[in-house]
Design brief:
Blueprint (H helix, E strand, L loop, with lengths): L2 H12 L3 H10 L15 H13 L5 E5 L7 H16 L3 E5 L3 H7 L3 E5 L2 E6 L1 H7 L5 E6 L4 E5 L2 H12 L3 E6 L4 H9 L5
Parallel strand pairs: 1-2
Antiparallel strand pairs: 3-4, 5-6, 5-7
Helix pairs in contact: 1-2, 2-3, 3-4
């Protein structure tokens, strides 16, 4: 079946206007492949078609399992954009992923699972702050030297001094990412 035909049957089942098919193929960047056989599509194109088909009936609830697994960064970015649009339109999305960066960027709340049990749940940014055991400020100076200071009241004046001397190129805090939090909680790496 072509991309268009692949979406036609579900459109009929859901009573969706055929114009919606063309709109969604365009939205996922497959308008030029509408007549192309699905078996001849790349993996990224197939993923975008699957997402377009899932969006066909404007669901209020959408379950996605590893929607960007094995895709190149450009296609992943496109799919992330589509998911953000769906979210803004009011669709609730349950996303299963091993990609913690993806979960951090897309999810309002995450549940970290280990052996089928929830070991932590919360807002991604808050979880990363909660497990910030190092609490270190790293300053990269314009002369390329790097200074690491514990984020304490005692070091506040030192940190301010670097800014007053206008020598700060960048500053970073030590919050872990979600993958680090997962490893800390479970003692094992992501698969």
């Amino acid at each position: 079946l072509s991309c268009y035909d692949n979406m036609l049957l579900p459109a009929r089942i859901y009573g969706v206007d055929k114009n919606r098919i063309e709109e969604l193929l365009k939205r996922v960047g497959l308008e030029d492949a509408a007549k192309k056989a699905v078996e001849k599509l790349s993996k990224g194109m197939r993923q975008r078609l699957v997402l377009a088909r899932a969006m066909l009936h404007s669901p209020k609830l959408l379950f996605l399992d590893e929607p960007t697994s094995g895709l190149d960064p450009a296609v992943t970015q496109t799919i992330h954009g589509l998911l953000q649009e769906l979210k803004q339109e009011g669709t609730t999305i349950f996303l299963t992923t091993h990609n913690m960066d993806e979960a951090y960027r897309l999810c309002d709340h995450v549940a970290l699972l280990n052996d089928g049990r929830i070991v932590e749940y919360g807002v991604p940014e808050e979880l990363c702050r909660k497990y910030n055991t190092q609490n270190i400020i790293t300053i990269l100076c314009k002369d390329k030297s790097m200074v690491k200071l514990k984020n304490t009241r005692e070091n506040a004046d030192k940190i301010m001094g670097y800014f007053q001397d206008e020598c700060v190129e960048s500053i970073h805090s030590s919050e872990p990412n979600l993958e680090t939090v997962f490893v800390e909680l479970t003692g094992r790496r992501l698969l």
